[in-house]
Amino acid sequence: MDLVDAAYARAESSGFPMSCERPVGQLLAALAAGVRPGGHILELGTGAGVGVAWLVRGLGERTDVTVTSVELDPRTAAVAATQAWPSFVDLRVADACVFLPTAAGAFDLIFADAPGGKTEGLDLTIAALRPRGILAVDDMRPAADWPEDFTARQDGVRRTLVEHPHLVSVELDHGSGMVLSTRR
């Protein structure tokens, strides 16, 4: 079983319901494939490891890129850690809002998929992008079952990204709704 299928199986068996959808994962793989040699990728919200598995799939046989994935919840991080990851993958248990200030301008691609770095500390995530770095944010299309306060927070994230003076952004009706932003 490949990393992506194993990650979806882990998510299902552990009862983790918030993994990225396959269309989002496919986009992440395509974006990862374009990261420059020696580049750095960051995922905020490891979950069961589905997003990081898609990123690794996109890199294929490349080992010249590092992938760091940060998860706040140690129990959830432990689920992803059961996978044998390539040596260039670094899974960390940390608060994204504490980790991000140490990483200003460090990343070529960031997938923000957790409250820390997305609905809280989005400015820190943007600051962690290198010039010409890409920020991918999913869950941007409101869903009928979202609580009103969550919808408002997600809309705030969307507005910040599309109106930010240092970003060029596009909204995509892809998967759960995406905003892709490139830092000028």
Question: What does this 3D model show about the protein?
Answer:
The protein is an alpha/beta fold and 184 residues long. The chain has a single domain (3-183), classed as Rossmann fold, CATH 3.40.50. 37% of the residues lie in helices and 23% in strands. It contains 7 helices and 7 strands; from the N terminus they run H-H-E-H-E-H-E-H-E-H-E-H-E-E. Helix 1 (3-14) runs antiparallel to helix 3. The radius of gyration is 15 Å and the shape is globular. The termini are far apart.
Output the keywords:
single chain; 7-stranded mixed β-sheet; 37% helix; alpha/beta; globular; 184 residues; Rossmann fold; 7 strands; 7 helices
Structure at a glance:
This protein is an alpha/beta fold. It is 37% helix and 23% strand.
Can you tell me the CATH superfamily? Vaccinia Virus protein VP39
What structural category arises from helix and sheet content? alpha/beta
The sequence of SSEs as H and E is HHEHEHEHEHEHEE
**What proportion of the residues form beta strands (DSSP E)?**
15-25%
